[in-house]
Amino acid sequence: MADANEKLRTEFNQWAAEGRGEQMESHHLSIARQTVARMGLKPGDRVLDLGCGTGWVTRWLAEAVEGGPGMAVGLDISNEMIARARSASLSVENVLFAVAAAEEIPWREEYFESALSIESFYYYPDQEAVLRELYRVLVPGGRLFLLINLYKENPYSLLWVEKLKVPVHVRSEAEYEQMLRAQGFTDTFIAHIPDLSATPDDSSSAWFANAEELREFKRIGALLLVARKPETGAAR
Predict the structure, then answer these.
(1) Is residue 233 scored above 70 in pLDDT?
(2) Count of structural domains, the chain
(3) Is 167 part of any domain?
(4) For an engineered disulfide with 45, which of 8, 113, 176, 210 has Cβ 3.0 to 4.6 Å away?
(5) Is 205 a member of any domain?
């Protein structure tokens, strides 16, 4: 586990140095906005952004929960990403960032009303351990939102796998839903979030052969998994 996390840190520190953390905002803006709109955040809520990168979504979350104890916390394995997140968030009072592995969230039990992870969950070496941690830090009745572009039902996303420099999990919608339930989550819900951004005819990418592939990938959309920690805190 330590070796796998160190590989992730090294890779995403390199991404940060290349400015790819900031690129994620433009690449995922559409699906991220749609997802945050579905979260129903309220002033005073405490929300976790797991795999926050440069913190662009974390800042949205901080604005949405501003007031009283409202707080947005961004965690990432990459110390370079977190450095950039902190630098870009100096004017935001109700946001915190920390360097941490996803399966070791440095927060007390039952703290967050909501937890969000955008385009990072498939990288985590032990996804079950990450879900156990998310379950631990959510309040009873708290909700989890996992947004991922890489999953079996979107064949165009599978074109990435051999191009990535770190291992990833490729699972189906049903496998993810089963995993959530096995870790004690209930009220599981699956949605597809299309990327509504424009795709110029001359689009080129390291991940897709042509603009038509990219359009189809966007049309199928990202997989959004929503689940709730039981109100009773029932044993799993």
Answers:
(1) no
(2) 1
(3) yes
(4) 113
(5) no
* DSSP state string for 95-160: EEEEE--TTS--S-SS-EEEEEEES-GGG-S-HHHHHHHHHHHEEEEEEEEEEES--TT-GGGGGG
Query: Residue 178 domain-assigned?
Result: yes
CATH code for position 175: 3.40.50.150
**Band of the pLDDT at 203, cuts 50, 70, 90?**
low
Q: Is residue 172 part of a domain?
A: yes
Contacts of 144 (CB under 8 A, 6+ apart): 114, 115, 116, 134, 138, 180, 185, 225, 226, 227, 228, 229
pLDDT for 236 beyond 70: no
DSSP label at 215?
H
Name which of 66, 73, 76, 75 is nearest 45 in CA terms. 66
- Domain coverage including residue 68: 2-186
Q: Which residues pair with 49 in a beta bridge?
A: 74, 116
**Is the distance from CB of 117 to CB of 51 less than 8 angstroms?**
yes
Q: What is the pLDDT of residues 158-188, one digit of tens each?
A: 888 888 888 999 999 999 999 999 999 999 9
